[in-house]
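Form 12-C: Joint structure prediction
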Amino acid sequence: MKYAVKIEVSLKPGHSNPEGETTARLLVELGFSVEAVEVSKVYKVVLEASSMVEAEQKAQEMSSRLLVNPTKDDYTISVAERK
Amino acid sequence: MKYAVKIEVSLKPGHSNPEGETTARLLVELGFSVEAVEVSKVYKVVLEASSMVEAEQKAQEMSSRLLVNPTKDDYTISVAERK
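Section 2 - Result
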């Protein structure tokens, strides 16, 4: 069965966030009352698995082997059956 | 009042998606049964506004003036009161 897993990768609090800081500065220069910007990345992966539990396990393994840097990143995983 | 707006920017269908294609290829090389990967970016912006409607309007304006390329990007906006 096919599943769509969504892996959202964000910076851990306290880690340098140059893209967010630059974006915040640009928005302020454009006149917006912005206090802070955080930037995260979302991977939507369509994969083959025998169950939702297996799809979630595969997403965990993809995260730790490729998509996430455990030193600086937090991440969340959600799984849905592929329509 | 402070609001947290979330702007998710993804590529329109049919547009070249080199980061997703590279990620998919690497995951397949690692042994995963992956069909496709889409990569999108999420901006979480904390801003000052007088109402939720105004916060959403500001997020629309930020998107069109800085964060989104209308030729190739789709985007969604959600707004929450800042805890």
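Section 3 - Comments
Chain B touches chain A at residues 2, 8, 10, 20, 23-24, 26-27, 30, 32-49, 58, 61-62, 65-67 (CB under 8 Å). Chain B has a mean pLDDT of 96.
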